[in-house]
Amino acid sequence: xxxxxxxxxxxGSNVENIVQFFQDKQNVSIAAVLTNKRDAKVLDRCNKLNxxxxxxNRTAFYKTNCVLGILESLQPDLIVLAGxxxxxxxxxxxxxxxxxxxxHPALLPKYGGKGMYGMRVHEAVKNNGDSESGITIHYVNxxxxxxxxxxxxxxxxVADDTPETIAQKVHELEYxxxxxxxxxxxx
Length: 187
Ligand code: GAR
Description:
Elements: E1 2-8, H1 13-23, E2 28-35, H2 41-49, E3 53-55, H3 58-63, H4 66-74, E4 78-81, H5 90-95, E5 100-104, H6 118-127, E6 132-139, E7 149-156, H7 163-186
Parallel strand pairs: 1-2, 1-4, 2-3, 4-5
Antiparallel strand pairs: 5-6, 6-7
Bound molecules: glycinamide ribonucleotide.
C-alpha cells in the first residue's frame, strides 16, 4: 500500500478530488491532510470524507520538528501540495528528496515565485493578455516553483475570459490530470 500525505491551505477542492480518485484504488491511501489554516475549508472536507485532517502552526512547521515527526509516523511515499501556500522548509526537502510534489495553476516558469498563487496568478495572466495558461506539476526544491517539471498541460484563453473563468478552466485541468499524474508517480 502506497501512502500520500496532502498539504493544503484553503478550499481543498483538489484534495477532495484526489481523495475521491483514490477511494476505490486498493493500492494507494490518503494518510492525512495537513493544513496551516485553522479555519480552512479543507478541514470540513476532511470531516465529510472521513480523512485525517490536522492543523499546524508556524512553530510546528518552521521552528521545531513537530510536522516532520508527524510525517515520520505516517511514512508517506508522496507528499503532495494541493494549494499549499507556505514555503517548504529545507529539512523537509532533505528528508524527502523527489517525494514532494506541487501543483501550480499556470505554465511555469511563467507566473511563479513568492506571492504568486490562486487568483493572483489568473489576474496576471489576464492582464498580460496571454492566449494560453495551464497547470504545472513539479517537484519541490528550496525555491518557490523552481523544481523539475513533471507534467504540464495547456488551455486556451479567449478575449472574453476573466480571471474567474481562467481559474475555472485551470481547475478543470487540475481535477482531470493531477490524480492521474500522482498515480503514475506511485506506480
Ligand atoms: C489550485 O488552483 C492550485 O493550483 C493553486 O491553489 C489552488 C487551490 O485550489 N496553488 C497555488 O497557487 C500554489 N502556488 P483548491 O484549494 O480548490 O484545491
